[in-house]
Amino acid sequence: MALLEDRVVLVNGGSQGVGAGIVRAALREGATVAFTGRRAEAGERLAAETGATFVRADLTDPEQVRGSVDQVVAAHGRVDSLVNAAGLTSRGSLLDTTPELFDAHIAINLRAPFFAMQAVVAHLVARGAPGTIVNIGSNCAHGGPPFLAPYSAAKAGLAGLTRNTAHAHRWDRIRINDLNIGWTETEGEDAIQREFHGAGDDWRERAAERLPMGKLGQVDEIADFVVFLLSDRSGVVTGSLIDWDQNVVGTTD
């Protein structure tokens, strides 16, 4: 049996990158899938390709975040699982981050997941139904490089939020976990490398040479792991912060 048979899954930030990979993997595993995104063209293109439902939403607006959950419930009758995959990785250190950049990171990387979870958990509790949530975190939650100060702060907050809400709703049988991913090959990462680091067309190959497994993290591998966490095959696990990376936190050479 497919892992997500008869599940309605909402993927926030699902129009590209890791989110789009999760949309495809969840569909493959039998789910009915809806996803949010800000850019209509990208969202409509993925919806046409996959048959998933696209809900256009600006996730910096809590009302649109909560409203997107209502739209999915109206379209499909319920939401069983949520993935918070939207992420902002614009660079900023402690010394050069503006209040505007800091607020942007908090809005996308922490506030949007908070209010999406609020809406989905309220819906599940009202139904008296179990559910699963996966937050796409980052290994930067453990500290991160100097040029990702606001991003690291927001992802650390998401890690704490995951554990808090998993504890609060364990008796509601709502399992909430956080997947702290490392450096991953996506369209967005390509743009970031070129804009902020002056990378050329060979940046992926050069990066791979410096990584233990000889490659960047791959979207399809992450998506398969997320599907497993959403499914019953992941058992009773909740409140877990899983480091999905090839560098081991806390170790040195």
TrEMBL record:
Keyword terms: Oxidoreductase
Pfam families: adh_short_C2 (PF13561)
Superkingdom classification of source: Bacteria
Alphabetical list of CDD domains matching this protein: SDR_c (cd05233)
Membership in a protein family: Belongs to the short-chain dehydrogenases/reductases (SDR) family.
PANTHER family: 3-OXOACYL-[ACYL-CARRIER-PROTEIN] REDUCTASE, SHORT-CHAIN DEHYDROGENASES/REDUCTASES FAMILY MEMBER
Name of this protein: SDR family oxidoreductase
